[in-house]
Amino acid sequence: MTPVVTRIQVGGDRPYDVLVGRDLAGDLPSLVEGAAQVAVLFAAPLRARAEQVAEAAGVPALLIEVPDAERGKTVEVAAMCWDSLGEHNFTRTDVVIGVGGGAVTDLSGYVAASWLRGVRWVPCSTSLLGMVDAAVGGKTGVNIAAGKNLVGAFHPPAGVLCDLDSLRTLPADDLLAGLAEVIKCGFIADPVILDLVEREPAAAVDPESPVLRELVERAIRVKAEVVGVDLKESGLREILNYGHTLGHAIEKREKYTWKHGHAVSVGLIFASALSHLSGRLDAETHARHRAVLELVGLPTSYAEEAWPELLGAMRVDKKTRAATLRFVVLDGLAKPGILAGPEESLLERAYAEVTR
Ligand SMILES: NC(=O)c1ccc[n+]([C@@H]2O[C@H](COP(=O)([O-])OP(=O)(O)OC[C@H]3O[C@@H](n4cnc5c(N)ncnc54)[C@H](O)[C@@H]3O)[C@@H](O)[C@H]2O)c1
Ligand SMILES: O=C(O)C(=O)C[C@@H](O)[C@H](O)[C@H](O)COP(=O)(O)O
Ligand SMILES: [Zn+2]
């Protein structure tokens, strides 16, 4: 029988649990113990859930509504939140809670990391992408004109709540976006994920299905194992960026109107092509990328004329060292590695696979 709540521990200097289940409100009071108040950040679609979370915390709650999706992930919105915390005498024992998808949890985490140089933070993730990725691992931040997530901090949460019931109201396209990160985990570390998606593509996006729950838990375990040993991305953690170098460049070019998971999906095709064309990845595993992403309906192509702009945007990727572009590639299924300083002609040939 499926357990009511699955606890996945994330190790490191400040270990914490990621809870996956249904109706997790009862787990909140222990995470905010000692707080005189909490601040609950949310965007309009999650108001009702934010109010439930505020009630469940068991201490007075300051509800802060922020703009939805990427529009909320800005320095200006973070400053609005800081002002609000200041007005309410928010102290070091108080707790910031983020209720929403990855955009709200990234923002709330950054507000918590920067307020008084760091207060407790609890992400209550309501999107698939947030559960399997954004809420886990302590990467917090906002976007700026120069690029995606360029301002932020590593700030591990006190605990993470992933209430699967919230997926019932998540728009189908956002669920699909989350599946891109799940599939990424399949390619870099856990091929059973790929088997499950290929065998049951409909169940993989059905919030009531045990298949989706298994995918959520598997993807969280992949991330937990990585960030537990390399919080600050000094090595191993880079593998979680598979598909993101081009993905973030697409998001920037689209002025953050594309869903992150959709951009990552296209980025996975590019990263796989780079792996294959540099002689590191076999043709079968390379072809499997397009096949599984298209099976579930994720995008796998992008505009040919965008290449010069995308190449420029990729130069400010966080994995770049001096002027050397670095990409996460595969040396085989579940064997991630780094490709540093590829020839521009190789990059162009890989991008040609994205435009077809
Ligand atoms: N910190 C990290 O490690 C990390 C990892 C992956 C992604 N991210 C970031 O996460 C963001 C993407 O997250 P996302 O895909 O969750 O997008 P999102 O947060 O923009 O949410 C997508 C949409 O779904 C709505 N929504 C969320 N949950 C809902 C629910 N239960 N019911 C109804 N509507 C709901 C949101 O309000 C929004 O309109 C990006 O900014 C990305 O950079 C961060
Ligand atoms: O947690 C990580 O590390 C990741 O790279 C996970 C990514 O899915 C995520 O989108 C992350 O926010 C990207 O981080 P960035 O440092 O490239 O902005
Ligand atoms: Zn991502």
Automatic annotation (TrEMBL):
Q: Which UniProt keywords apply?
A: Amino-acid biosynthesis, Aromatic amino acid biosynthesis, Cobalt, Cytoplasm, Lyase, Metal-binding, NAD, Nucleotide-binding, Zinc
- Species source reads Paractinoplanes ovalisporus
Cofactor remark from the record: Binds 1 divalent metal cation per subunit. Can use either Co(2+) or Zn(2+).
3-dehydroquinate synthase N-terminal domain ranges (all copies): 64-175
| Locations listed in the record | Cytoplasm
Q: Indicate what this protein is called per its UniProt record.
A: 3-dehydroquinate synthase
Q: Where would you find the membrane-spanning parts of this chain?
A: none
Which NCBIfam families does its entry note?
aroB
Annotated 3-dehydroquinate synthase C-terminal domain ranges read 178-320
Specify the enzyme's EC class, one word: lyase
EC identifiers of the protein: 4.2.3.4
Instruction: State which pathway it belongs to.
Output: Metabolic intermediate biosynthesis; chorismate biosynthesis; chorismate from D-erythrose 4-phosphate and phosphoenolpyruvate: step 2/7
Function text: Catalyzes the conversion of 3-deoxy-D-arabino-heptulosonate 7-phosphate (DAHP) to dehydroquinate (DHQ).
Classification via Pfam families: DHQ_synthase, DHQS_C
Entry's family note: Belongs to the sugar phosphate cyclases superfamily. Dehydroquinate synthase family.
**What residues does Zn(2+) bind to?**
181, 244, 260
Cite the binding residues for NAD(+). Answer: 68-73, 102-106, 126-127, 139, 148
Classification via CDD domains: DHQS
State the reactions this protein catalyses.
7-phospho-2-dehydro-3-deoxy-D-arabino-heptonate = 3-dehydroquinate + phosphate
Please give the cofactor(s) recorded in the UniProt entry for this protein.
Answer: Co(2+); Zn(2+); NAD(+)
- List, in alphabetical order, the Gene Ontology terms for molecular function in this entry: 3-dehydroquinate synthase activity
Is ATP-binding found in the keyword set?
A: no
